[in-house]
Amino acid sequence: MAHHFARGLLVLTALGLSGCMAFSPDGGMATVSDLTSQTINKDVAFVRTAEGAEVVNATVRRLLARTLTTETAVQIALLNNKGLQATYNELALAETELVEQSLPPNPVFSISRIAGNGASEIERQVVGDILALATLPFRSDIARDRFRQAQLRAALATLRLAADVRRAHVRAVAGNDMVALLTDAKATAESTAQLAVKLGETGSINKLDQAREQVFYAETTADLATARQAATSARERLALLMGLWDGGLDFRLPDQLPPLPRRPQALPSIEADAVAHRIDLQIARLELTALAKSLNLTEATRFVTLLDLAGISRRTQDPEGPPFRERGFDVQFQIPIFDGGEVRVRQAAATYNLAFNRLTERAVNVRSEARDAYRVYRSSYDIASHYLREILPLRKIITEEMQLRFSSMQVDIFALLTEARQRLASLRGAIDAKQKFFLAQSDLQTAVNGGGAPASGGDTSTTFAAAAPTDGGH
Fold it and tell me: Other C-beta atoms within 10 Å of 1: how many?
């Protein structure tokens, strides 16, 4: 009987092996690459060899040789950011979990020999975890859902990095634009302050007007220093996200942000698009599916958590008689006297309900985030467009008219300088409004596709080991 059991155990193991998973050639990156390409039209690479690293480095050097647009910066970061590569390593580790869960339990072979007074006994056993083997298809199916979640988490980290790079690039370019504006304003303010000092020495202006021009120069100098510090920090942040070892001090940024689009996006179904496409929601749905399967498996194995079957072959050598052989089997299972599995079933049900409520909460939040992101996007576009189409053209007309009146001596120089200060304030407001629009545009894309900062409790995976213990419950 033990011989037949051993053969049957080998057959069952072979059948289990025929359906088990194998490692993919790309470490599960196909899904990540497809989602990234469809969502933001960018390439990703999981660097695992020296040759692959050299290809990535060559691509990064080629992209850094150009003026760094937003799209170029995003592509560099997706290829070169080591934190993202670590996320892809975690995905590869998740694949090992999938393969491990799809493998049948290894049978255990033991041999023992007892001798004394001329007699000896040799016993051989082959022990198999029948419960683990019987639940293998269920556990393998749950592991596939978990691996799919890991793939989506890697894609979510990719989109999150892309969104961070977009924001950092917008801030860096806007910072440079502000520095250039304040540099010109400081030069003008310095000349005006020097002129005021000379006029004050001749008695042409009083101390109040002289102090006004000097304080404008002093304030502009302080504003320029602040703008330079902010631009430097924004540039450093961008270099960090792109994974540049030396800070990438030699990369070139555009002089100013790109022009506004001719018209804003019209997204009448933005809430439905967000619910359908948000990757964090897809992760939560898979989590709920996996927990439902775990709950079913827990209910199916609530009474039996240990079922080991051993085939035994024993050979006895007796000095007073011929040797003889014995065969048999041994079955081990737990008797559910004290624990009938109610604890595990209730735990699985509570965990499932927790995940369901988290998913529902996240769906409500996603709809709200999408609506708010679109409102901010539209209002930011309207404000920036108002500056560019109304305020700045009117400021230009006022400046030109003031210069004509100054040339014909209808106004004095101080009236002209007052207008210059007001025009500077409008130009700074226009740069700030334009920056806010492009940041809102990035936030809108994030609200629809995912990639923003994880909400509290919204991106936390709820895990529960509901499958039968693979160690036999010992």
Answer: 11
What is the number of alpha carbons within 13 Å of residue 416 lying toward its C-beta? Answer: 17
d(CA 223, CA 214): 14
Distance CA 17, CA 22 (A): 10
Structure tokens at 342: 């109610």
CB 449 within 8 A of CB 278: yes
Structure tokens at 227: 């703008």
Separation between Cα atoms, residue 132 and residue 111, nearest integer Å:
23
- Nearest-angstrom CA–CA distance, 166 and 68: 11
Other CB atoms within a 10 A radius of the CB of residue 142 amount to 25
Count CB atoms within 10 A of the CB of residue 114.
10
Which stretches of the chain score pLDDT less than 50? 1-2, 5-6, 9, 12, 15, 17-18, 302-304, 306-307, 338, 454-474
Amino acid residing at 247: G
The CA-based dihedral angle spanning residues 303, 308, 309, 315, taken in that order and rounded to the nearest 10 degrees: -140
* Nearest of 257, 279, 278, 272 to residue 440 by alpha carbon: 257
Cβ distance 189 to 418 under 8 Å? no
What SS3 class is residue 63? helix
Tell me which residue of 428, 443, 440 sits closest to 387, measured CA to CA. 428
Tens digits of residue pLDDT in 300-336 = 554 445 445 555 666 666 666 677 676 765 655 555 5
Q: Quote the pTM value.
A: 0.76
Provide the CA 212 distance to its chain's centre, in angstroms: 51
Whole-number Å distance between alpha carbons of 44 and 29: 9
Q: What is the pLDDT of residues 228-279, one digit of tens each?
A: 999 999 999 999 999 998 755 678 999 899 999 999 888 878 888 888 888 8
Percent composition of the chain: helix, strand, coil (DSSP 3-state, to 5) = 65, 10, 25
Q: Which residues contact 200 (CB under 8 A, 6 or more apart)?
A: 206, 207, 210
| CB 114 within 8 Å of CB 452 | no
Asked if 253 and 235 count as a contact pair (C-beta separation under 8 A), the reply is yes
Rounded Cα distance, 37 and 55, in Å: 19
Contact 155, 33 (CB under 8 A): no
Phi-psi region of 225 (alpha: psi -120 to 50; beta: other; left: phi over 0): alpha
Q: Is residue 48 classed as helix, strand or coil in its secondary structure?
A: coil
